[in-house]
Amino acid sequence: MFLRFAATAVAMTLAAPAFAQDAAATPETLPDIAQGAEDAPLTIVEYASFTCGHCANFHANVYPQLKSEYIDTGKVRFVQRDVYFDQPGLWAGILARCGGDDKFFPVSGMLFDEQEQWLAGGSGDEIATNLRRIGLKAGMTEEQMTACWEDTAKVEQLIATFQTNATADEVEATPTFIIGGEKVSNQPWDSMKEIIDTKLAEAAPAQ
């Protein structure tokens, strides 16, 4: 899916469920949420949209191998950065962070796994209802989700973070990966594994 840096990105907040109207004038960017050892020799950043089919495919077919072989073994630190193409993707991004950092990756996984189902709503209200069902399954309360969607200042920060990071890394499509500082397009697992192994070899201390 190709990236559209819309000048009206901030306006998307106005169409989110029950957003307040008191956004901060100068939103700050938010820190990354990462998986894996802090001292891992290699960092992989994924730019993904929760409404991107190729991103859902990556998380279903490639990410499990990446996690088991590299993240869980301390070789890779993995960062997922959200990209917002549309209002449903923004709403999903808010939900993913609503439960705190510890729930970000589990909720993200649910959003990708159930992407076809929650996006199937014919209206914004139906999609929001579908997203609430995912949040409830993840252990959030109705009140908690409503508070997150009404927190316009936080939403402004999410959009500012997306725009700042994606512009700096010249991201034009999702999923896009930054592997050891190198921008890499969507890859099948075998190709990505080869790139990762090469980067790990480069990062290894000289004997």
Automatic annotation (TrEMBL):
Domain Thioredoxin, by residue range, is 10-201
Keywords of the record: Signal
| Keyword NADP appears in the UniProt entry | no
Q: Which SUPFAM superfamilies match?
A: Thioredoxin-like (SSF52833)
A Pfam family matched in the record: Thioredoxin_4
> What range does the record give for the signal peptide?
1-20
- Has the keyword Signal been applied to this entry? yes
Give the protein's biological function.
Answer: May be required for disulfide bond formation in some proteins.
What family is this? Belongs to the thioredoxin family. DsbA subfamily.
What is the official name of this protein in its record? Answer: DsbA family protein
